[in-house]
Specification:
Chain B: Keywords: Cell inner membrane, Cell membrane, Membrane, Transmembrane, Transmembrane helix, Transport. The complex is a heterodimer of chains A (78) and B (330). Chain A has 78 residues and is α+β, with helices and mostly antiparallel strands. Chain A contains two helices and four strands, in the order βαβαββ. With 330 residues, chain B is an all-alpha fold. Chain B has one domain (1-325). The chains are: A alpha+beta (78), B mainly alpha (330).
Chain lengths: 78, 330
C-alpha cells in the first residue's frame, strides 16, 4: 500500500505481548488521520492487532508480508 | 511406550503452532484486551477432554489420575507460575512450542523453566516441597474410574462430595458449552486453525495422550524435567520427556511448512534477563504445584480435580497481577 506513515514502530524479535502493547501505546498518543507503520514478526500479534487497535481508535489499513514471517501493518488513527 | 510420546508430542506441537494456543495470552486477553478468542479455544478443548477422559475411563481403557492436592503449593506455586509466564512471554507449552518457531527467548525461558523444575523435583531445591505440606487424599471404598493407591485418591469434586463423576462432568460440560456458544466470540482473521477447530484438535490430542501414556494426559513440566535429567544424568527417557521433545519438533516442522520459522532475537538485552527470571518462577511454581498450565488447566480441569481448580485460579491471578504491574499500571 502506497501511503507514507507518520511513525514507524519496529517490534520485530520482541516477546508476547510487547508488540500489541507498544502498538496501542503509540496509537493513543497520535492525532486523528495520522498513520502508524508497525514492523512485526510475531504471528499471533499480527492476527490479534486488527481487532485490538479498535479500542484505541485505530483501523488497520493493510497487512503486507515483507519477509519470512515478517509483516508491515499500516494503522490509521481515526 | 516412549516412541508414542514422541508421536503425540509432534502432533501436539503442530496443533499448538497452527492454533497459536497460549494460556498466557488467553488469560491476559480476556481481562485486559476484552478478547476471548484463545479462552474459547481452551474451553472447547477442556469440554471435549472432560467428556473424553470420563468416557475412556468408564470403558476401562485408563484410570483417571487427578493431580495431588497440596493447597498451599497450588496457591503459592500457582501465583508464582502465573507471574512467571508473563515475564517469560509465554506459558509452559507456549515457550516450548515457540522454540520450534525460532524464538531465542523461548529457548532461554524453556531451559530456565526446566532446570528450576528439575531442581525442585529431586534436585538441590527438593527441600522446598516440605514447606507446603503433604497431599490431601480421599479414601474410597470403591475408586471406580479413579486410580487409587492403597485406597487413596486425589480429591475431585465428585469424590469429595460422593457423587457420580459423570454427573459432575456433564454439568461442567454444559457450563462450558453455555460459555462457548452463548457468548460472543472475538473476531480474528487467522491463517491456521480457528478457535473451534483448534480447540477440537487440542482436545483430541489430549485424549490420545491419555490413552497412550495411561498414567496421565498431556503435560510439560515433568517432560522438561525428564528430558534434562535424561540428557545430563543418564536417567531413562520416558513418555512425557519424549512428548516435550516432540512438541519442539512438531512446531518446527509446522513453522517451516507455513513459512513462519525465523530466528527471532530481541534488541533489548533486558529482555533476556526478564525471560530467564520468568522461566525460573515458572519452574519453581509448577515444580511445587504438581503441574503447569497443561498439567493443571488443559489436562487437570477435565478431571474436576481440586488441585487443578485451585492452581488454575492462582495461575490466573498471578498472570493478571504481573501483566498489570508491567504493562497496565499508570
Amino acid at each position: 500500500m502506497d501511503v507514507k506513515p507518520n511513525y514507524t514502530l519496529d517490534v520485530r524479535g520482541e516477546v508476547c505481548p510487547v508488540p500489541d502493547v507498544e502498538t496501542k501505546r503509540k496509537l493513543k498518543t497520535m492525532q486523528s488521520g495520522e498513520i502508524l507503520e508497525v514492523l512485526i514478526d510475531y504471528p499471533l500479534s499480527k492476527e490479534r492487532i486488527p481487532q485490538g487497535v479498535k479500542e484505541v481508535g485505530g483501523e488497520v489499513l493493510a497487512i503486507e508480508e515483507i519477509g519470512p514471517s515478517e509483516w508491515r501493518i499500516l494503522i490509521k488513527k481515526l | 511406550m516412549i516412541w508414542q510420546g514422541l508421536i503425540v508430542g509432534i502432533l501436539f506441537g503442530v496443533v499448538l503452532q497452527r492454533s497459536r494456543m497460549c494460556f498466557n495470552s488467553a488469560i491476559r486477553d480476556i481481562k485486559f484486551n476484552k478478547d476471548n478468542y484463545l479462552a474459547k479455544m481452551a474451553a472447547v478443548a477442556i469440554l471435549l477432554e472432560t467428556l473424553g477422559f470420563h468416557l475412556v475411563a468408564s470403558l476401562g481403557w485408563i484410570k483417571l489420575n487427578p493431580l495431588p492436592f497440596i493447597p498451599l503449593a497450588q496457591i503459592i506455586g500457582g501465583f508464582l507460575f502465573g507471574m512467571g509466564m508473563v515475564l517469560a512471554g509465554g506459558c509452559a507449552s507456549g515457550v516450548t512450542y515457540r522454540i520450534g518457531e525460532g524464538y531465542i527467548t523461548a529457548i532461554l525461558a524453556g531451559l530456565s523453566f526446566g532446570v528450576t523444575a528439575a531442581a525442585v523435583r529431586g534436585g538441590v531445591l527438593n527441600f522446598v516441597n516440605s514447606w507446603f505440606g503433604s497431599p490431601i487424599t480421599v479414601t474410597m471404598q470403591d475408586p471406580g474410574i479413579y486410580n487409587a493407591v492403597e485406597g487413596k485418591v486425589s480429591p475431585t469434586i465428585a469424590n469429595v462430595f460422593g457423587i457420580n463423576p459423570w454427573i459432575v462432568a456433564i454439568i461442567f460440560a454444559i457450563l462450558l458449552a453455555v460459555y462457548i456458544w452463548g457468548t460472543k466470540t472475538t473476531e480474528r482473521q487467522v491463517s491456521g486453525l480457528n478457535w473451534l477447530t483448534g480447540g477440537i484438535a487440542l482436545g483430541v490430542v489430549g485424549i490420545l495422550g491419555y490413552l497412550s501414556q495411561k498414567t496421565y494426559a498431556l503435560g510439560i513440566t515433568g517432560g522438561w524435567v525428564n528430558l534434562l535429567k535424561g540428557t545430563v544424568a543418564g536417567v531413562p527417557y520416558n513418555w512425557i520427556g519424549m512428548e516435550v521433545l516432540g512438541i519442539i519438533i512438531g512446531a518446527f516442522i509446522s513453522a517451516v511448512a507455513s513459512k513462519e520459522f525465523k530466528l527471532r532475537v530481541p534488541k533489548d538485552p533486558k529482555t533476556y534477563l526478564q525471560v530467564i527470571l520468568g522461566g525460573i518462577l515458572m519452574g519453581f511454581g509448577a515444580g511445587v504445584a504438581a503441574g503447569c498450565n497443561i498439567g493443571h488447566i488443559l489436562s487437570g480441569l477435565p478431571h474436576l480435580a481440586l488441585s487443578s481448580i485451585l492452581a488454575t485460579i492462582f495461575f490466573v491471578l498471578g498472570n493478571w497481577f504481573m501483566y498489570w504491574y508491567l504493562y497496565a499500571r499508570k
